[in-house]
Amino acid sequence: MLTNDIEKDLQHYIDEHIKMQFFCYNLSSAADKLGFPGFSHYFQLQVQDEVLHQRRIMNFVLDRDGHYQIKNIAEEYKDIKNIIELMETYQTKRAYFAELAVYCKTKR
């Protein structure tokens, strides 16, 4: 059984994975628009990875009689001008995500 605090943290983590999925779709589109099909493909693979992570977290919650809800999820869209800006944007988002994972781990 999950405590309310753990369930709340995991709900937030699920939400952030969904945002990361949308974020990677947007980066894939931006890379394609800039003429970098390899980067576009890479970000599509990242989307699949985020879906897998979401599923694992959701199963973890359900296996412990917890619950989650997918509600209003919004991801900011940034008009990216070049490949350097695209990669810097991705690096910033990944750093945030890494900090979030460490926070959740150390909070326990």
Structure description:
It is a single chain. The protein is an all-alpha fold and 108 residues long. 76% of the residues lie in helices and 0% in strands. The protein has 3 helices and no strands. The protein has helices at residues 4-33, 37-63, 83-107. Helix 1 runs antiparallel to helix 2 (37-63). It is elongated, with a radius of gyration of 15 Å. The protein starts with a helix and ends with a helix. The mean pLDDT is 89.
By secondary-structure content and strand pairing, the structural class works out as mainly alpha
Rg of Cα set = 15 Å
**Would you identify the regions where 5 or more consecutive residues have pLDDT less than 50?**
none
DSSP helix fraction: over 70%
The ordered H/E elements are HHH
Largest sheet: none
Overall shape: it is elongated
Intertermini distance = 15 Å
pLDDT averaged residue by residue: 89
Residue fraction in strands: under 5%
Number of distinct helices: 3
Number of strands: 0
Briefly, what is this?
Helix content is 76%, strand content 0%.
Please supply descriptive tags for the structure shown above.
108 residues; mainly alpha; 3 helices; elongated
Topology at a glance:
Layout: H1 4-33, H2 37-63, H3 83-107
Helix pairs in contact: 1-2, 1-3
